[in-house]
Amino acid sequence: MSQLEKVKELIELREKARLGGGQKRIDGQHAKGKYTARERIAILLDEGSFEEFDMFVEHRCTNFGMEKTKFLGDGVVTGCGTIGGRLVYIFAQDFTVIGGSLSETLAMKICKVMDMAMKVGAPCIGINDSGGARIQEGVNALAGYAEIFQRNILSSGVIPQISGIFGPCAGGAVYSPALTDFNIMTEGTSYMFLTGPKVVKTVTGEDVTQEELGGASVHTTKSGVAHFSVENEDDGLALIRNLMSFLPSNNKEEAPRVECTDPIARMDDLLNEIIPDNPNKAYDMYEVIGAVIDNGEFLEVHSAYAKNIIIGFARFNGQSVGIVANQPKYMAGVLDINASRKAARFVRFCDAFNIPLVTLVDVPGFLPGTGQEYGGVIVHGAKLLYAYGEATVPKVTVTLRKSYGGSHIVMSCKQLRGDINYAWPTAEIAVMGADGAVEVLYAKEIAADPDPVKQAEAAAAKKEEYNKLFCNPYNAARYGYIDDVIEPRNTRFRVIRALEQLRTKNQVNPAKKHDNLPL
Ligand code: HXC
């Protein structure tokens, strides 16, 4: 062969590899409303930035006549490229090749990009669309999964890991996304479950569809396994790009700072009137968040799960922050098992990746009842407490209204190393609300008077006394638990100034092998 012929052969081989499982299967993928692995990568990465690895890898299995079913690159496309000019590593499972099923060599390809990502400190993004372990490869496929999981574990907290679930993800395969930081699922075309509907039927007798068992809506509303549900793959890929803009490339860096076009000292008069006079009335925390962050741009995480707490990324003066806020409009903003788990994981993510935390507090307490206690709310609530207490990133807390009892402590209070703790004049920082306190302290005394009118008057008088003494920010401010009581409309400026003050914060926890977070 001449050199020119060899170059021609290379070009032909590449073309063949780019066809994956062939045009018919590509058409099949499109017919299901899905992109191919290569199309997904092209949409996700900056144009022309993709550098592919291992295009010529083929599986080595000879069981069940597999030596006749070989495809260049096997069932995954891997490599690196850039998003917004920043390096990322990527693997996208190719369903057109043997259903994207995981072979020994396919796992090896994925592990190679995961190792490269760790070596250079760049995020790793995985697009899942696979029938799971390649059945013909037996234990070699299982070993391949374990190799991937091990890398997920070691990468956790070192580089951001993001999973797009754009097709099937079943059996033990679900554990790789579960070990990553963010899962994005497409509505109607993706599903995740440990055992499929047929096994469910056999074992429990339950009739359930794939969608009901593990579709995007299940995992974003009921289980919390997925953080985002998107209408289609274009939205999912755009979301990954947006998400990346808030994150650093690794745990030694800070998130990129963007130019801020929103005036730093912008005041919003709405905030001076947003808290209703009636303490039992709700208002919408999204309005507060929108009013204080840069340009109202909020990337909410887990928006459909545990809506009593809001988490997500925003910017203050161009700096990426994680927002955690109670939502009085949903279950009065009470903390429960799901809200605690949701917020705790987010706080730990932000802390691992040097993203400051801004916490907006309006919390009446923990949700009481057997359902919560039997479900272990003590341990789950402790997760959030633990997450805030161990976090060493800058922590700015603003208490808007209620901040009672244990939930006051959990929501980034001063003693959990809150750096700057502000309160609005409407804040009520106390052991409990006036109704509960008067009931505990004076129920017998009040009941001793047989006249119901006098009973009501006595109760009202005691509540007023309690409110005056405790249901305000000044009692806590008197002890230095609140650093300043601020005018609500000035919150944006005060948070920005606090974050600026904390830019050089340097706090280190005691050395240990690892912690023992209450799981
Ligand atoms: C080998 C597989 C495969 C697999 C799919 N294919 N999954 N080959 N091993 N796991 C092949 C199919 O045989 C088919 O090949 C091609 O991929 C496309 O699959 P279809 O079934 O035609 O596609 P579709 O109708 O869209 O159905 C997709 C599917 C189904 C629902 C994912 O393929 C399926 O149920 N697959 C098996 C799922 C499964 O049980 N996996 C093992 C899970 S256990 P041909 O040549 O016929 O077109 C597991 C353990 C991991 O993964 C443990 C880790 C710790």
Number of helical stretches of at least 4 residues: 19
Mean pLDDT: 96
Oligomer: single chain
Percent of residues in helices comes to 25-40%
- Strand portion: 15-25%
Radius of gyration: 27 Å
Spans of at least 5 consecutive residues whose pLDDT stays below 50 are: none
What's the CATH C level of the largest domain?
A: Alpha Beta
Q: How would you classify the helix and strand content by structural class?
A: alpha/beta
CATH homologous superfamily label of the largest domain: 2-enoyl-CoA Hydratase, Chain A, domain 1
Please tell me what the overall shape is. elongated
Q: What name does CATH use for the topology of the largest domain?
A: 2-enoyl-CoA Hydratase, Chain A, domain 1
Bound molecules: hexanoyl-coenzyme A
CATH architecture of the largest domain: Alpha-Beta Complex
Number of strands: 17
- How many domains? The number is 3
Spatial separation of the terminal alpha carbons: 63 Å
For the largest beta-sheet, the strand count, sense and barrel status come to: 8 strands, mixed
Pfam families: Carboxyl_trans (PF01039)
Family: Belongs to the AccD/PCCB family.
Keywords: Transferase
InterPro entries: AccD/PCCB, AcCoA_carboxyl_beta, ClpP/crotonase-like_dom_sf, COA_CT_C, COA_CT_N
List keywords for this structure.
about 525 residues; alpha/beta; 2-enoyl-CoA Hydratase, Chain A, domain 1; 3 domains; eight-stranded mixed beta sheet; seven-stranded mixed beta sheet; elongated; binds hexanoyl-coenzyme A; COA_CT_N; transferase activity; Propionyl-CoA carboxylase beta chain
